Amino acid sequence: MALVERDKVGGTCLHRGCVPAKEFLETASVMRTVSRAEVFGVSASSLSVDFATSQTRKQKVVDQLHRGLEGLLKGRGVTTFSGTGTLLAGRRVRVSASGSSQEIAGRHVVLAAGSLPRTIPGFDVDGRVVLTSDEVLSLDHLPASVAVIGGGAIGCEFASMFSDLGSKVTVLEALPTLLAACDADVVSVVARSFRKRGIAVHTGTSVRGHQPGSSGTRLEFGEDESVDVDAVVVSVGRRPATEGLVDGETGVKIDQAGFVDVDPWMRTGAEGVWAVGDLVATPQLAHVGFAEGILAVKGMLGEPVVPVDYSRVPWCIYSHPEVAFVGITEDAAREQGLDVVVQRDPFGGNSRARILDETDGLVKVVAERLPDGRAGRILGVHMVGPWVTEQLGQGYLAVNWEATPDEVAQFVQPHPTLSEAFGETVMALTGRGLHVG
Ligand code: NAI
Fold first, then answer.
1. From the CA atom positions of the chain, what is the Rg in Å?
2. What values do phi and psi take at 69, rounded to 5?
3. Ligand 1 pocket member 151 (CB < 6 A)
4. Tens of pLDDT along 373-402?
5. β-pair type (130-131, 231-234)
6. Domain ranges (residues) in the chain
7. Contacts of 283 (CB under 8 A, 6+ apart)
8. Do domains 2-113+239-310 and 130-236 have the same CATH topology?
9. Quick one: which H or E segment has residue 145?
10. CATH of domain 130-236
């Protein structure tokens, strides 16, 4: 078993994405908790962030996980080749590293080269004023003011993090709302929280360009608006890293947007060559890439496999407030002509949320409407609020098992927990809610 890696094993998720971003968001969470300590009668006098220490801690967490991963690979007898891999015809792979190159061949080859941040014309990434997620995660100081271009998952996480750490933040989003893929009720809670914390959000706006000054830059947007900031974070999506990935007549097809064409079993057009993760046009989520990898390996082993149902994968956004969802949104259900019943349970009525003093948020369940008007299969679960990324599990299983509220409401929810809000919402859909419905 051979693995070809040009940088460090662990890729974007471990080194430049999920893990370091969530580590910094945890720093932001500590900051928020300490800033509200007095609510609990705890006095914490001076509040400040030593970003260099935060950066060192983040790197320690990443390095520990990296060492663990290297150990796992070694323990399983995987040989790691350092260099850039290029697929050639006949399932051969050229590994090039600083002037030298060698070829290896395999019975099966998996392409899993990931993605890179997209940029926009006029915004050359210099790592000082114009940054992508790659640069933000290795900053050694906290910019006093930041403009975030793109209000998707990365944009909202960084806006939330910088704001909690004390930066003045402006978000510029081209679409009419932040987090366009999320349920509208969820987006409203995030937008309200951002507003309350002083984050300036401009949606439905286009960025015209920027004029660098002696330290920061003047960002121009809309008709004639501008904002002076120390740093601009460009978070407008990610593109597949397929450049130079294949050479010659391999049979692997790459579409116009750069994604590798695969069938639902992750097979490319070349016999024995598979592609998974951000290289293929499926949700760019680490856990989706992981599920696709398992699918490919099972396929190689000739085991029966069920393709990933992309309409029912879990989504988690680690901004404050957190967002987590699975399945269809209420608006999408109605657009598709589905007859649905919807139930919301705000965290305001949840004991644990009151104890935490974190009552902003809700759980929302979308279920199909049965001919008698009652709720049938649960089609979507949408959460926003405290620790919802850790609470989605029940909703994920309910949607994927096509459970009905009557079935789920049988189960006992531990009390007091945040997660009982899901049970409460589902119970209300049976017509017997305790607080709502
Ligand atoms: P995204 O596709 O989620 O959001 C990009 C946003 O930028 C969109 O709302 C788009 O309308 C906006 N945009 C594009 N061009 C623009 C322009 N010129 N001016 C203003 N707005 C513009 O992409 P993002 O946030 O960069 O994330 C990349 C990928 O990584 C996504 O697939 C995302 O799902 C994934 N990701 C997932 C996370 C999670 O699950 N927690 C965290 C971070 C990223």
1. 23
2. -65, -45
3. yes
4. 999 999 999 999 999 999 999 999 999 999
5. parallel
6. 2-113+239-310, 130-236, 321-429
7. 310, 313, 315
8. yes
9. strand 145-149
10. 3.50.50.60
Relative to beta strand 168-172, strand 145-149 is: parallel
- 115 close to 202: Cβ distance less than 8 angstroms: no
Q: Which of 108, 382, 415, 435 is catalytic?
A: 415
Q: Candidates 119, 134, 137, 154: which one to mutate for ligand 1, based on the most atoms within 8 Å of Cβ?
A: 154
Q: Which of 435, 285, 431, 415 is nearest to 362 (CA)?
A: 435
Cis amide linkage into residue 176, ω under 30° from 0: no
On the question of pLDDT at 353 being above 90, the answer is yes
> What Å distances lie between residue 19 and 25, 72, 84, 164, 314, CA to CA?
10, 18, 24, 18, 17
The verdict on domain 2-113+239-310 having CATH code 3.40.640.10 is: no
pTM (2 decimals)?
Answer: 0.96
pLDDT of residue 435: 75
- Closest CA to ligand 1's atom 36: 153
Indicate whether 368 pLDDT > 90: yes
pLDDT at 437 (0 to 100): 59
Question: Model confidence over 256-286: pLDDT tens digits?
Answer: 999 999 999 999 999 999 999 999 999 999 9
Mean pLDDT for 11-33 is 96
21: nearest Cα among 322, 313, 319, 389: 319
The pLDDT tens digits of the residues spanning 30-53 come to 999 999 999 999 998 889 999 999
Going by CATH, does the domain composed of 321-429 fall within 3.30.390.30? yes
- pLDDT score of 436: 63
- Asked if residue 207 has its Cβ within 6 Å of ligand 1, the reply is yes
